[in-house]
Amino acid sequence: MQSIFSGRRAVIVSIALLTAVLHIVGIGRHVQRELFNLYYSYFSDLLLPFTFYFLFCLPTPELALLRRWEVRLALTFLLPSIAETSQYFGIPVLGETFDPLDYVMYACGALLAALVETQVFARVFRFWRIAEAGG
Predict the structure, then answer these.
(1) How many Cα neighbours within 13 Å face the side chain of 31?
(2) pLDDT tens string 78-135
(3) Number of structural domains found in the chain
């Protein structure tokens, strides 16, 4: 059972590290002017929910509720949405500028992660299916 969870952890840590590297390297500095604003406006709004979805996939026996992908999807969308709504009311949480399109990007990032988990990881990684079944 430990090797099942270590395989899952390795995939999740890899996703998180890749996300960190993409932010540190700042690939937005290397894109054409037309894509520059698009990248800086929405890249993190897509990538961070994607990454946090998988952080919610870490094996946590104490949090049985997080075993369901639907719950992870909802949390992954709702948490940044609460921060965005706070920005609308002038409360700076994870930023200061309200942008309604951010909600769309949060939803896309969360949905993409759920699709990758349920349609790709569950088929590619045997240990992912076993870990899901075992909690």
Answers:
(1) 12
(2) 999 999 999 999 999 888 899 999 999 999 999 999 999 999 999 999 888 765 655 5
(3) 1
CA distance between the termini of the chain: 11
Phi, psi of 42 (to 5 degrees): -130, -10
Task: Provide the residue range defining the domain that includes 122.
Answer: 2-134
Burial class (CB in 10 A: 0-12, 13-18, 19+), 129: middle
| 84 Cβ contact list (under 8 Å, min separation 6) | 95, 98, 99, 102, 103, 106
Taking the C-alpha atoms of residue 111 and residue 96, their distance in angstroms, rounded to an integer, is 25
4: left (phi over 0), alpha (psi -120 to 50) or beta: alpha
